[in-house]
Amino acid sequence: MTRLLLRHARLATFDGASGWGLVDDGALLIDGGHIAWLGADAALQACVQADHEINLQGALLTPGLIDAHTHLVYGGDRAAEFEQRLQGASYEAIARAGGGIRSTVAATRAASETQLFADAANRARTLHREGVTTIEIKSGYGLSEEAEARCLRVARRLGAELPITVRSTSLAAHALPPEYAGRADDYVTDACHWLAAQQATGLVDAVDAFCDTIGFTPAQTTRVFEAARALGLPVKLHAEQLSNQHGAALAARFGALSCDHLEHLDVEGIAAMKASGTVAMLLPGSYYFLRETKLPPVAALREAGVPLAIATDHNPGSSPTLSLLLMLHMACTLFRLTPEEAWRGVTVNAARALGLADRGRLAPGQRADLVAWDAAHPRELAYRFGHNPCRRVWCAGVESLPA
Ligand code: DI6
Ligand code: FE
Hints:
The protein is α/β, with parallel strands linked by helices. It has helices spanning about 80-85, 90-95, 100-110, 115-130, 145-160, 185-200, 220-230, 245-255, 265-275, 285-290, 300-305, 325-335, 340-345, 350-355, 380-385; strands spanning about 5-10, 20-30, 35-40, 50-55, 60-65, 65, 130-140, 165-175, 205-210, 235-240, 260, 280, 310, 370-375, 390-395, 400. Helix content is about 35%, strand content about 20%. Strands 1, 2, 3, 4, 5, 14, 15 and 16 form an eight-stranded mixed sheet that branches. The chain has an eight-stranded parallel sheet with strand order 6-7-8-9-10-11-12-13. Fe (iii) ion binds near residues 69, 71, 238, 313 and 315.
């Protein structure tokens, strides 16, 4: 394995509990896909020897970005639904009338696995060109045993064929498929059985559910989580997005990695998340696209010391964005995160939301997932929008974008 030395970069390490962790005119040594050493370029010792050196000429070097909540695998689009909503129809009303998630389920079932892979790979590449090196991908648009497995296989194949890391999450409890109309409890029973096969075939890293009035009840969510726990799989939850179902407190009782959305989260939910060490995954894309007006309780989460993360929630219905950098910006403008909080939300806290301790910071021993940006300071990336200053990306020490 070659040793690669990156020199003359401004490092933003995010190492330590707060601050940017800046190292001006820094150097970083990669060995075996991991960071072996980092520090001031002037402190480079003769013993730090590399096979290859790159002068980054003052570029900003950060950890690779982590998009820890996406629904990247699906068929079709929902542009017509967007027009309906612009004419006054609500997201919930469209869902109740059988559109919404269920229209994407029909398009996903009708698509071939080859097509699903090709479309999702294009989306993943778009994220990657903006510096994303780890992506979480949920199923949830198949909603049958075979169609769910197909989507999870596509996610696994993306991880195998693209330079990025993919973590896959089973979200069979996303919506009730039409063949189970009026039989939600039966659907949950069957979906819990599918999990065992997904686990046995190595298709799944975590389990999620949509606990809401148009999703599943807290009792049904509990059954899904019990099935996950029996298989040793970590859980996370789409919680308090459209209404307060006390899903965050429920998920916290299962030691959830993250609770996601959280616009309607209450003080009990915040306390429960704090006690269980659960990450608050904030999703400004869906807040914006659904024109929500109720903000997630960011100040209270901050005060309680709940770690904050940010993701695209990329999906065709509520967040058709493929820009994690835009989410970084919108987390600041819409949710009032500081630029540093937003950055931690797409690096170190996003890693924590995936249960990954080997990435999200620049420190010896961490995976060499790195991005060189055409910027002097990370706050510039939160400040600009519709702008991509990503210049070079390394995944486990291997450069993955054309230089
Ligand atoms: N909440 C969301 O925002 C996505 N899923 C969920 O449970 C939206 C999914 C969709 O509209 O297709
Ligand atoms: Fe989502």
